[in-house]
Structure formats: structure tokens, C-alpha cells
Design a protein that fits this description.
Shape: globular
Structural class: alpha+beta
Radius of gyration: 21 Å
Number of strands: 18
Strand content: 15-25%
Largest sheet: 7 strands, antiparallel
Low-confidence stretches: none
Mean pLDDT: 96
Helix content: 25-40%
């Protein structure tokens, strides 16, 4: 592609267009996952919807591979490409809160940290991610599992409308009660249908919460998992707790002699009345002897930031996820066997609950198909040394294959790796054909294919 052609894009937009040789190009092409070091032809730092429209039209008309980047946390590195155009939304990150209507409008480049900061000022929140640097856009379009899911549903269950630029360069509004197919597809169908420049999300009264992190010896790991299996189905929905395996980092509440040891952990979130929080922690102290704990009230945004330091931008990472409708003794045995081998402090397994309010939405009401699932395990390895790639990826794959017999065929699209293409149909379950037909209508040439891709119907 000639420089003149890139210059023609620059003439169409008010935003910076960076190419190799520009001082900021290397920073602009970097995504969160350090495994991906690609060199796009250009990076468009969109500032307005008109920039997005121009970028979509330019990529389509010039047969350029198009990467759409919000927070840049895509595990398979979909926010960049080799020789393509990156449409980066990071400069479109405004959040506007309407406390009377309990709604927030957020642009597609905002992170959950920014969203939470804006809504917390009014004592409000909605279901977001586990790491605050995650983009609102990517997490929402894939479904949105988070601390508040049992109480308030998935993020998509709180989505009220979306402004989206489709492959023909047209800006459209998808909302409740109108444009039924696009709105249905955006809620769980990933980035397959366009660039969402603006989300409208419903909010809930959540300000200060009570949180606890409890570390148990590995000898009690099966007891911890069995407790979650028995406790969560009927627990108050204010609980957002999940078990994990974790090497203890050097935190003030961890005894110095135990830093670096591997534990089974419980991460507990109580969004009910804060004065009930200490009592809400009691069941987790009774599971087994607690080696280390931190518990107390905190602003909800602080909880959403708790794991940020373990997952900085540029760290190499690989993960896999699945869904499970139950947690059998056999599955627990495999979790214990492989979780005990967690290789470093920035690697883990989180077993997120997806029951409670998540089950109140019918399987056909959104593109998110696994409304009957009770758990969404994610196995994540993150490391800095490229020499460890094979070992870390091997741990994740071995763990995933060990629990596969006890899991559903598909998994959460936001937990898919770059080698999970064969699972796409299973991830969308019986919804795939309807999604493919919507794809044919709005993106017949599959311009938006750097995602967990849905092929347009024939």
C-alpha cells in the first residue's frame, strides 16, 4: 500500500494515523498480551464516530485486515494484525452517568476502571470484569461475567442500547424493542457485527462492598471446592465468591515465610449491606483453617482493581475457559491435581459462578447460549520470559483437557485462545445459525473476522 493511500486516510479523519517510523507507532501497535508482536500498516487512533466510519470504509475498500481495539485485552491478540489497519478506540472513553434513570453511556474505548470510577461517584455500578484495565466493549460483547453477575446478571443483561458502525460504514442504533436481530446478536456474539462506539448500561445501587481473600492449604482444596458446590446454588445473590489456585504474592496479610507458597483461595465479594459483610465472611472461615486472609469494606472499584498488578500490559499470557453445569467429585479431583501445579504468581484458575440472576434470562433471549451453566472456569498463565512459553502453555492445556470430560462443549468467548477456532460453533451452541444469518445481513464479506469468528451464512 502506498504512502499516498495512507495519506488519503489522514485527510478523511481528524484523528492521528500512525505508521512505522512515527515516534508513537510502537506503543500504538502493542496489545496487552506480549505474545503478539505484530506490525500493522497503520493505527488509527479514532476520536469520533466519523473516524470509525472512515476507518471501516478504508479497510473494506482497500482489502485491509481490520483489527478493532477497545481495551486491548483480547487473549488471542485480535487487537492487532500484520499489515492491516488497527482501529483503536482508546481515545473514545467518555462515561456519562444519569443517576436518576440509573443509566450510563460509555464509549467503546473505556476500561472498566474508568467506568467504575464514574458510576461510583453516584453509588452505582453494573456487572463488569475482574481486572479494571479490561475494556468495557470486549467484555460486554462476549457476555460479561464478573463479581456482580449473581446479583445483577451478565453485563449484556444490563445493556440497554448500543451505537454500532457496521461493515458498510453505516452508524446504527441497536436497542431494546427495536432492531431486534442486531441487539440480540451483540449480546454475546462478540465483535462480529461491527464497531460499537457507545454502550448504554443499566446501573444498580452498589457503592461500598465487603470483600475477603482467604488462603487455605492445598490439603483442603477439595473441601473448598465442595463447599462452593454446595453453598453457592442457594446462597444470597449478594455473594460473588469464587475459588482459585494462587501462589501467594508478597502482600501485607501473607506471612513472610509463606510468600511464594501455593494455596487454594476463596475470593469473596458481598454487595449486600456493608454492616452484614463481616458475618457474610463467616462461612468461608469455617471451611478449613485459614493461613492468611484480608477482609473488610472497600469501594467496589477497589475490588475490581485487586488483580491489576498481576496482569500488567505486555505480560505474555495464554488461557482457556469452559462452562460446566455441575461440579462433580471427579471434576474437583482434576482441579485439585492441576491447580496445585500453578506455575507462578501471575497464573491461576478462577471458577466463576454464573447462576443467580444469570439464570433468569432465557437461553434464547440473547446470543449468550449457556444460561444453564453454573460455572465458568478460566485457566490463565501469564509470564514474562519467552523461554517459558512451552511450559506455561502446556500447563494450561493439560489442565483444560483434564476437566474437559466434565465441561460443556463450548465456553465463554472471552476466555478463548488463538487456537480455539474449532470451538466457535460450540461456543454459540444452537444460536450459531441465527448469528450466521445476521452476520450475512450486516457483514456479508466478513470484514469483522478478527474475533471468535462467525462465518456469514451461505
Amino acid at each position: 500500500m502506498s504512502k499516498l493511500t495512507i495519506d488519503s486516510l489522514r485527510e478523511q479523519v481528524s484523528a492521528p494515523v500512525l505508521t512505522a517510523g512515527d515516534p508513537s507507532y510502537d506503543d500504538a501497535r502493542a496489545v496487552h498480551n506480549g505474545m503478539f508482536d505484530k506490525h500493522p500498516k497503520a493505527v488509527l487512533l479514532a476520536q469520533h464516530v466519523a473516524d470509525v466510519v472512515a476507518g471501516v470504509n478504508f479497510a473494506r475498500d482497500n482489502d485491509l485486515e481490520l483489527s478493532v481495539r477497545g481495551g486491548g485485552h483480547s487473549a488471542p491478540g485480535f487487537g492487532t494484525s500484520e499489515g492491516g489497519l488497527v482501529l483503536d478506540l482508546e481515545r473514545m472513553r467518555a462515561v456519562q452517568v444519569d443517576p436518576q434513570r440509573r443509566r450510563a453511556r460509555v464509549q467503546g474505548g473505556a476500561t472498566w476502571g474508568e467506568f467504575n470510577e464514574a458510576t461510583h461517584a453516584y453509588g452505582l455500578a453494573t456487572t463488569g470484569g475482574i481486572v479494571s484495565t479490561t475494556g468495557v466493549g470486549g467484555l460486554t460483547l462476549g457476555g460479561g461475567i464478573g463479581y456482580l453477575a449473581r446479583a445483577h446478571g451478565l453485563t449484556i443483561d444490563n445493556l440497554r442500547s448500543a451505537e454500532v458502525v457496521t461493515a458498510d460504514g453505516t452508524g446504527r442504533t441497536a436497542r431494546e424493542g427495536g432492531n431486534a436481530d442486531p441487539f440480540w446478536a451483540l449480546r454475546g456474539g462478540g465483535g462480529n457485527f461491527g464497531v460499537v462506539t457507545d454502550f448504554e448500561l443499566g446501573l444498580h445501587p452498589v457503592a461500598d462492598i465487603y470483600a475477603g481473600i482467604f488462603f487455605y492449604e492445598l490439603a483442603f482444596a477439595a473441601d473448598v471446592l465442595q463447599f462452593f458446590r454446595d453453598f453457592l446454588p442457594n446462597a444470597p445473590r449478594s455473594y460473588g465468591a469464587f475459588p482459585a489456585f494462587q501462589i501467594a504474592p508478597p502482600l501485607p496479610f501473607v506471612p513472610a515465610q509463606r510468600v511464594g507458597d501455593t494455596f487454594c483461595a476463596a475470593i469473596v465479594h458481598w454487595s449486600g449491606p456493608v454492616e452484614e459483610g463481616e458475618q457474610a465472611m463467616a462461612p468461608f472461615r469455617a471451611i478449613a483453617p485459614v493461613v492468611a486472609e484480608m477482609a473488610g469494606p472497600m469501594p467496589y472499584p477497589a475490588l475490581n482493581m485487586a488483580f491489576d498488578e498481576l496482569f500488567p500490559k505486555g505480560i505474555r499470557s495464554y488461557w482457556k475457559g469452559s462452562f460446566a453445569t455441575g461440579l462433580s467429585d471427579e471434576a474437583i479431583a482434576e482441579h485439585v491435581r492441576h491447580g496445585a501445579q500453578v506455575p507462578e504468581v501471575s497464573a491461576t484458575m478462577h471458577l466463576y459462578p454464573v447462576n443467580g440472576a444469570c439464570h433468569e434470562v432465557g437461553a434464547d433471549e440473547t446470543a449468550f447460549a449457556y444460561r444453564d451453566a453454573s460455572y465458568a472456569p478460566v485457566i490463565l498463565a501469564a509470564w514474562t520470559d519467552p523461554a517459558l512459553d512451552q511450559d506455561r502453555i502446556g500447563w494450561v492445556r493439560d489442565y483444560y483437557h483434564a476437566i474437559e470430560p466434565y465441561s460443556e462443549p463450548g465456553g465463554y468467548v472471552n476466555f478463548m485462545a488463538d487456537d480455539d477456532d474449532a470451538r466457535v460453533r460450540d461456543n454459540y451452541r444452537g444460536h450459531y445459525q441465527r448469528l450466521a444469518e445476521i452476520k450475512r445481513e450486516y457483514d456479508p464479506d466478513n470484514l469483522f473476522h478478527l474475533n471468535q469468528n462467525i462465518q456469514p451464512a451461505a
